[in-house]
Each structure stands twice: as structure tokens, then as C-alpha cells.
Amino acid sequence: MTPLDHLRRSDAGRKAAVVLAALTCMAAFFVLAARAEDEGKVERNIYIPATISPEAQQILKNLSKEKIYEGELPEPDDREGWRKAHAKGESSDKEDEETAKRSGVTVTETVLGGVPVLDIRPRDWKDNGKVLVYTHGGAFTIFSAYSSLDSSVPMSRATGLRLISVDYTTAPFANWKKIQEQVIKVFEALQAKGYTMKDIAIYGDSAGGGLAISAVLQMRDRGMDMPAAVVLLSPWADLNDIGDTAHTLKAADPILAYKPSLKNSALAYADGLDLSDPCVSPLYANFSKGFPPCLIIEGTKCIFLSTSVRLYQVLEAAGREVKLDVYEGMWHVFQLYPMPESETANRKAAQFIRYKLGI
Q1: CA 224 to CA 185: how far, in whole Å?
Q2: Does residue 351 share a domain with residue 299?
Q3: Same domain for 159 and 289
Q4: Whole domain around residue 238: which residue ranges?
Q5: Has this prediction a pTM greater than 0.90?
Q6: Residue 33 three-state SS
Q7: For residue range 143-189, what is the model confidence (pLDDT) as tens digits?
């Protein structure tokens, strides 16, 4: 006879049986939920807040239907899988060039310090001796300078600056050390062309934000000067799946999932290094030795929100100049989408960059 059979012998027992059955069902639910979480398949019901613009509400509805977070990336050492994933993330160069032309910028392929880059200049650009370097996102493993023109082109227009988008080699075909070195080589090449570090700012989004931090810290530790400003859009500065919103926003983020996609990318980039090592998770670096003025832009729906808050706190505690600009109802790198919130964020980023460059 089961425990439920014993309980059913009395009215009180029947009530207790209902409770026990409910608890049993709940337990089964949580087991299934845990399994789903382990597999990166957390059920999501994306809330559409009335407190964001109508344009943003519609985009968020579309993102909810697309379920981008269900996409999976290859195992860290599956090079053929990564080749296919990278190719899938790229649109044709011709389409990207046409988009850039319609946006009123020129895009030129060139090489700086042995590293391929895109030299992006707004229409009617006049050389003021200032330049903005961009490190693109894509979890260190996908996308390129071309497929991230939807970020670099609006920023070039907003700032009015010549923008150098670094087309670094993605993991696992390069590890963290080589990727960061490529960014540094671009800075060295710009200096060789007459730019001083006070004439250069850097910005990066997502993994590109983490890369921007790491590259600047590497330059500092080598005794090089640092750029005039750093702007970070939803920076992936901690490759671990920790922090409050990494878990509390897991079912609310319309874009990101740590398992298996982000985790596989993190392991490919780290190439055997512990994910808490400051070389790959710059949130844990020592900022007391110096870091440029920094602006961090984030949204309340992004699982990286805690990372951005923690990064802000670490920089502030180290006595660095830092601002954290958080947007209601916005998701990971929301600036890629045409809406009022993106225009506001890009304008504020541009103002910060231009002010720190002295223009």
C-alpha cells in the first residue's frame, strides 16, 4: 500500500493526499525544468512592457516569435562546425555594401598592422585627427566586420568619426591571446600613422565589449598609453554563468542562452584557460592601475545586466571614471534595431566619445 492509499482512509487524509499529490507534481515539474535548463531549453514567455516605445514593443514581439535563444552552436573544438556556423552568420558582402551606401557612409577594406579592417567614414567626413576603433560582437566565434555593419555604420554616423572595425580572427581558429593581439596591432598601426592614444576611442558590443576591455588592459600592462574613452554595449565581461540576472532573467531574455551556445563559445575562446581568468573575463582584472573613462550601456531584459552592474561597481571602486546607462525593457545590444531607444543610446554614446576626444 502506498502513502497515498493510507492517507485516503479519512477526510483529513484525502485533503493531505491532494496536497501530497500536488507536491509530487511540483517536484516532477522542477525536475523537468532543471533538465530543460541543463539543455538550454528554458521555456520563455517574453513580457512586452507598455513603458517602451511602440517601435520597441513591436520588435520585441517579433523577437519573441523568432526564439533566437534556441539556436545552438558547435562544441568548442568542432572546427568544421564553427566554419559552418560562421558562414551562416554572414550575409553577402554586396548586400552589406549596399546597406552601407544607403546609410551615407563609405566602407573600404584595408589592413592595419597585418590585421584586416574596414575603414568606415561618414558622408562629408573631414579629417579631424580623431578615430574610433570598433570590436564587433558574436560571442568571439561568429560574425565579422562586414556582418556587424549594422552596429558600426550607425555609430560612425552618430559620432561623425572615421571608424576602424577590426575584422579579427574568430575562435576557435584563434584563441583569446591571438584575438586580443590583433586588436593591439591595429592600435600600434594607427599610432605609426600619426595618431596618439588621446586621439583614439574604442567601443565594442557583447563579446566585442569584453574584447575591448581586455585589449585596453593588455596595452596598459605593456606600458602603452590607453585610448581616450571606452564605450561598452552589453559587454560580455564575465564568461561564467553567474551573477543575479544570469539566472533571474534567463526566461525573460529574448536573445541569449548560456547553455549550450554561449558556453561553447566561451570555451572555444578561452582555449583551456579558466573562465574566471582575467585574461578572458576582464571583470576580474585589476583596474586600480588605470583604465580610460568608460560608458556602459545595458538593458533591463539582458542576462548580462548583472555583469554590467558588477563591472560598473568594480571600476568605480578602483577610482575610475565610469557611467552606467540602463534602458527600460531593452534587450542585448538593442542598438542594432531601429527605434527611439537606439537613437537615444547611440546619441549619448557619441556625445561621450566626442567629449573625451576633445571635439
Answers
A1: 12
A2: yes
A3: yes
A4: 54-357
A5: no
A6: helix
A7: 999 999 999 999 999 999 999 999 999 999 999 999 999 999 999 99
